[in-house]
What does this fold into?
Amino acid sequence: MSILILAEHDSAALKAATLSTIAAAKKLDLPIDLLVLGEGIDAVATQAKNIEGLRKIILGDNAVFKDILAETFSQAVLALAGEYSFILVPATTFGKNILPRVAAKLDIQQISDVIDIESPQRFVRPVYAGNAIQTIETAQEKNILTIRPTSFNAVALGAAQDTPVEKKEFSLTPPRVRFVGIEASKADRPDLSSARIVVSGGRGVGSKENFKIIEELADRLGAAIGASRAAVDAGYVPNDYQVGQTGKIIAPDLYIAIGISGAIQHLAGMVGSKVIVAINKDPDAPIFQVADYGLVGDLFTILPELHNELQK
Amino acid sequence: MKILIPVKRVIDYNVKIRVKSDQSGVELDNVKMAMNPFDEIAVEEAVRLKEQGKATELVAVTIGPAGAVEQLRTALALGVDRAIHVPADAMIEPLNVAKILAKIVEKENPDLVLLGKQAIDDDANQTGQMLAALLDWPQATFASKIEMNGGDFSVTREIDGGLETLSLTLPAIITTDLRLNTPRYAALPNIMKARQKPIESITPDSLGIALQNRLTVIKVTEPGKRKSGIKVADVAELVRRLKEEAKALS
Ligand SMILES: Cc1cc2nc3c(=O)[nH]c(=O)nc-3n(C[C@H](O)[C@H](O)[C@H](O)COP(=O)(O)OP(=O)(O)OC[C@H]3O[C@@H](n4cnc5c(N)ncnc54)[C@H](O)[C@@H]3O)c2cc1C
Ligand SMILES: Nc1ncnc2c1ncn2[C@@H]1O[C@H](COP(=O)(O)O)[C@@H](O)[C@H]1O
It folds into this structure.
């Protein structure tokens, strides 16, 4: 009985979502092995040694893992799956893409987006955009979970442990899919998924040019930028800024929603935030029902004022 | 090229979800149902590929209760050629859906299966990937752009860090994301015409699939409510409260 976690990382360090997944795994009270796949990933292994409570780190350092393909990554997990009673990944686009392939091959019903672990057989997960919360029980011998990172406090990185690192070679069937390229979003601001403060803009911002005032406020606060689907669809910001049921699920200490009405699909991505501020000219906008502090008014007059007030 | 499009009947995305007081699930009686929005996007993409002369036949399939035939009619009205209904309980798990779809793929031999990335009821985000695994087909999930060059597809995917492009060889699985297209509405004459299009019924039994769920739902509850907040008068009050009361700003 033990747990395998497939790590999400950027070749230099583990993603915060992986640290939250480890925290979730600890609730199962079983030995935890961390699988790191990639090319040139020694730094990740070194960093993983700073995590307390891992039984071992399995390193698949190979050129075939340079690009993240569900076809290759799932084969590697499957090669190891036999001995584990749990396989966990973060419920990010990385984990969601790969893990169901593993589950289907093992004839297991995956449990997606786990927000609480009540026992090794009982899990809690949101359905209907978080408008209902399901408690489910499994009688499967092996269980496969994706973990919602915002529901578990990331494990800390502390002093280096003497966790063994096991190098592993995998023999893979070549996939019929080829990685062509990635258009990465600029990373000059904090990461939306793990930022302490997020400033989000919606359709009310009106244009890509106008979005500058959102950026200025974010920079003033050292915040990440988020957006509603409407703002992404209209091309104000890139796709990976979308917060919501089908975008990113975040829970910052402070979330500032500007010109966002508060559709349930949007709320699904941010109601877990500690403090919510809404700025909207419509006093009846549903966003005010979840906001701790609501300010009714035109964002184009409020934001410059806010900027000045913060400068004081 | 033949395309199979699995579509799911779900509660309309505009409906406010009500959890049953006995905690057995959510209220489905007298609730407006619709095609899962991501599946509408899949249907639209398939129809466009046919209009461009790249696809020859479009087949929609749903696994669900009798009412799900409505969603098949919608798909037919939007330009799908024929449809398959596999009768099943509404709460069927993704692994079983994927197994049934794998059998339908065996029968129908499509070159491409276009699914939604996620059903907005179970929010599982599993079926397409599972089907790809069962068939040993390549997958491109969360697609925001699909281009065909010869027999290959170039697919742009929405991922957490930006946009990724994959090239895949048919047969393949693609799941749709929101930005792929904007679905059209069915025109009235097409709704009429759709009534003449064939819908075949295939039971899970005849496909050799037993529909037992693997997981037991113990209870379904309402999410915790946030305690209601306040409206502030102006920016000065907002900043003061954020600093002093909420300690959210330093
Ligand atoms: C399958 C599906 C999945 C979806 N997933 C997501 C998701 O993940 N995330 C998401 O966000 N949405 C999602 N949506 C879309 C969602 O339903 C809403 O359409 C969307 O969130 C609306 O965005 P918005 O609030 O920016 O726009 P609107 O609803 O148009 O609201 C704009 C707001 O701006 C205010 N405003 C306008 N001008 C000003 C001004 N000058 N000053 C102040 N306020 C102003 C208006 O009062 C209004 O409240 C999804 C929808 C579907 C069907
Ligand atoms: N019962 C079903 N019938 C047909 N297609 C389905 C069904 N359930 C899921 N799908 C397809 O699988 C996609 C993802 O669903 P899910 O994995 O449940 O989030 C949906 O968008 C549909 O395309």
Q: What stands out?
A: Chain A is about 25% helix and 25% strand.
